[in-house]
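During the reporting period the student researcher (J.K.) took over the structure-prediction task from the postdoctoral fellow and processed the backlog of single-chain submissions. One of the processed entries is reproduced below for the supervisory committee.
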Amino acid sequence: MVAKFQRARTSETKESRRLVIVEAAKAIIDKDGFTALTMDQVAKRCKLAKGTLYIYFSSREDLLLAVLMEDFSEWFLGMHEHLGTCHRPFDESFLIAWLSGVEREPRLAMGMSYLHLMLEPNVSEDFALGWKSFLLAKLKDLHYELLLRFEPSITLELLTEFFTLLTSLSVGLWMQTFTPPQIKKALQKNPEFKLFEVNLPDLFMKAGSAILDSPSFVDLQKLGPKG
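J.K. obtained the following structure tokens:
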């Protein structure tokens, strides 16, 4: 009995330390951005030896992906709240809920913009497996909620394809919204350059509505409450 208690306590201690590391990474990212984060900074902030960090995360990219997974969890909660209260799941109110999630958590949008270029190519195989398993589980949870509340049914494949398109759209527009200082100065040189300024909410709602109205996703518009 004693041995079992000691193992549980050790497991809790490890999870607690892991959370401290992730929270430290979040604080650094919020202050200086994704590219500024280093394992040295995290170790210093946590008051841990750098080698200890590598017990929990084998690379900087693994740690960044862990941060992104936590932020995604919060974002998915927002989607669940929408589906739990709406009359129709995929309409303008859904696009507004999606957009507010992106605007409310800039770290998430920033992380998604680095995901395919920096994180996925450099994470360990274990973290890659955990990341994809995490996404699949979250999508299945949403899919299950849709099946419980609405009819006709929607396939998991169609839901995933739709989410992939909206993710690409929101991240791409978010990246264009936050232009570097030299680009901002260039835009101010000529009134006609205002054509290149990106209004994230306006363009996202227009493009998102066009996606919903497209033949590929017409089934989403047919989803109505059961009973």
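The committee noted the following: Residues 177 and 198 are 5 Å apart (CA to CA).
J.K. will present the remaining backlog at the next meeting.
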